[in-house]
Amino acid sequence: MIKRIAVLTGGGDAPGLNAVIRGVVKTGISTYNWEVLGVRDGGEGLLSSDFVLLGHHEIRNIASQGGTILGTTNRGNPFAYPIKEDGQVKLVDRSLEAVANLRRAGIDALICIGGDGGLKIAHRLAMMGVKVVGVPKTIDNDLWATDQTFGFDTAIQTATSAIDRLSTTAEAHHRVMVVEVMGRDAGWIALHSGIAGSVNAILIPEIAFRWDVIAQFSQQRSEGGKNFSLIVVAEGARPSGGEVILQEEDETAGIRRLGGIGHRVADYIALQTGLETRVTVLGHVQRGGTPTSYDRVLATRYGVEAAHLVAENKFDYMVALRGTQIVPVPLAEATSRLKLVDPDCEIIRVARDLGICFGDAIPSPLAVRT
Ligand code: F6P
Question: 133-163: b or e for each residue (b if 16 or more CB lie within 10 Å)?
């Protein structure tokens, strides 16, 4: 019988984390009379038994707040925990410690709110006998098995409003404005904010772009009397035959930080065409701040339904949005692959019909764009 549960936020934050926590705590206390603990700083808290009791007081007014009241980290993977030995970083398996700490604290079940990496860890803990339920989180919206992760809607609102602002200054100065957005493997943020912001080109990881096409497209727009252009680039976009641009990579420590493609694209266009270019890297602005009402509602539903799964003894599952319903999906299936943009999907076709260039070919001159 379940008496005490814990909730954990792991990996990069996403707007809506606090709404999930609130949903879990309210349902756990009011519907099931459980004691609900929070794990501080994700995997780090599991390994140091940093648990905090969550009551109605702790969750008051948190649904509208960005970040997470529990703290989070990318570096607390108990199966590959980085330690320094003789000046070298090596990864060690500390999962038995994490499981023992949960048992010692009398925690009967764990709700893990995570992205692909965090949910893979959750599944591995479940294989070791921990009663785990997962909640899909990431602004990138790249989790397979759910129609939408919470955090994505807020991220695209932020990116769209930035594009709207950049559009007016781009037009005033007759410039090519390049906006780099997040999306390491999937181009959902670039695609949605790009269409919403009526941009001229969108570069995403799923469609390799050609340097000559990007330059020629910008040139043609300029020669055709369009005296400014807006280009959205996902951080994971790469040229045909080329690699993604990294800011930092440390394989041993499991670090792979993307960024820089926006500058490369702008520099190339400037060099080849002589057009004046500017770059804006939105970065973590997309992850911060208050969640949209859509994300608050979705995150709350995820939290409440995750608590119900615990009560139903349905472990090693993740709550997922399918159409209008929240349904359970096995964690193994949910983490088996990423949800990438299909280059032939309807939304890409819509964008191409609008004349948006994806960098693989110059759009048909018949497509009318403003
Ligand atoms: O996974 C979400 C994400 O926003 C990625 O798009 C991005 O590459 C990454 O987080 C950056 O995370 P951090 O700066 O926390 O390492």
Answer: bbbbbbbbbbbbbbebbbbbbbbbbbbbebb
Q: Is 229 in the pocket of ligand 1 (CB under 6 A)?
A: no
- The per-residue pLDDT for range 27-65, each reduced to its tens digit, is 999 999 999 999 999 999 999 999 999 999 999 999 999
The pLDDT value given to residue 369: 47
Task: Give CA–CA dist 135/112, Å, rounded.
Answer: 6
* pLDDT band, residue 252 (cuts 50/70/90): confident
183 close to ligand 1 (CB < 6 Angstrom): yes
120: helix, coil or strand?
A: helix
Whether ligand 1 lies within 6 angstroms of the CB of 221 is answered as no
Residue 139 alpha carbon to ligand 1 centre in Å: 9
Q: Is residue 164 annotated as a catalytic residue, yes or no? A: no
Q: Where are the alpha helices (DSSP H) in the chain?
A: 17-26, 43-48, 95-104, 116-127, 152-173, 188-196, 211-223, 261-273, 293-311, 331-334, 346-353
Residue 329 main-chain phi, psi, to 5 deg: -130, 135
What is the number of the ligand 1 atom nearest to the C-alpha of 183? 6
DSSP class of residue 335 equals T
Is 175 close to ligand 1, i.e. is its CB under 6 Å away? Answer: no
pLDDT tens readout for residues 8-37: 999 999 999 999 999 999 999 999 999 999
User: What domains are there in the chain, each with its CATH number?
Assistant: 4-150+291-334 (3.40.50.450), 152-288+342-368 (3.40.50.460)
Please tell me the predicted confidence (pLDDT) of residue 251: 75
- The pLDDT assigned to 254 comes to 72
